[in-house]
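During the reporting period, we have paired protein sequences with backbone structure tokens. One record among many follows, to show the layout:
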Amino acid sequence: MWWILAACDSEPGPSAVTLDDVTLVWSEAMPTVARITFTTDVDVRSAVRVEGAAGEAWETGWEVTPGRDHAIVVAGMGPESEWTFTPVVEVDGEVIESHPLTGTSGAVAGLSKARPEVVGAMKSVPFVLQGLLGRDTSSVIFNAAGEEVWASPNETDATLVRPRLSWDGTTVISASFGEQAAGAPGEELFRITLEGEALGTIPTPDAHHDFTQSPDGFVYIATDARNLEPYGKVYGDRLVEVDADGNVLRTVWDTWDQWTCDGVFSDDGFYKDGNDWTHVNSVEYLPERDQFMVSVHNFHTVLFLDRESGTLVEQIGGADSDYTLTSGTAFQEFHSPELVGDVLSVFDNTIADTSSVRSYQIDGQAKTYAELSSTPNPAETYVAFLGDVARAEDGTRLASWGQSGLLTETDPSGAPTFTATLPMGNAFGFFVPLPILGGPAPAD
């Protein structure tokens, strides 16, 4: 159900485009999210520009295909405040502004109990989609000031470690992994639109840690436990691909096919009923390479797998690395590799030492990698689980520090620009930087 707050007709623009029936409505389910609809008398692409009273300003994503009926979902507005929305259209290479509309947002639906104390503001990205764990487990979106502008209420007992935004920008997908240490089946992907409409779940049996979108659906990390003498039950991992309805398409890759178990296991107690052998903990689809990037925690290595065949293309780090470290410190027992251009960044949990985020310069021809920079955990502690990092092109780095309860940003010199601290007993899960939030409404 919607309620209409404003409606108007605009004057013809310089290219004689007429916008009619312009309406602004707020979602009842997510009162900090608005939908703007209008029609045009010619085929155009459209977006919406947003401005807040405190000087905030951004633009939604643009429609891909020109048309005459337009619906743009706008998100990122802070709660209970006034906002100005200006529809814009593109025709013949010219961007034309319509008359602005104003409206007042409501409270954040599903507002988390674990709100952080914030110092500073993020410079590298306007929004972050973040998983929260602990006393309150949910997926939230923070703006650059650390204000919660969207929250997905979690009505299950599941642990929502990993949220992602769908490729079309309309839906938050959160992975539920239940009791990870027990390897319990029944895990799912929860889907909810930015406007608060629940789209149902996708079953991902035996899932843990992470998933990624793929051209054919979703790929997630699953356990592959086998009884192996003389060790007993041994947990390896596999990558499983499912379609949007949850139908299993294939096993993309399996640690048992890649390596022979040598009886060396982690003693972290992740699995209560067996030995933790490989501990794959992140997977990311790299469209520019058409590869999956996979982190193998216990082997200290990043793998690059061909998407179609699942075969290993190359790996960085660990005993079988195709690349030689020429300077700096090698990462160990890590999470969340990120490859931007020829720079690889990782959350280096290390082995019972102060955790850090590290970035490396990759030389593909020389097959070398060299540490560019590192930032230690501001809490000066070892992060035993999770951890995430994203590096901007200028060297600014955003990092979440797991059970330390910190989300931080540092400038290229390593100086802090932003710190969000959760109340004791809460932790940050994985996150996704959002340079753009909002865009064309999903098709009915």
Q: What stands out?
A: The two ends are 15 Å apart (CA to CA). The chain has two domains: 2-104, 117-434.
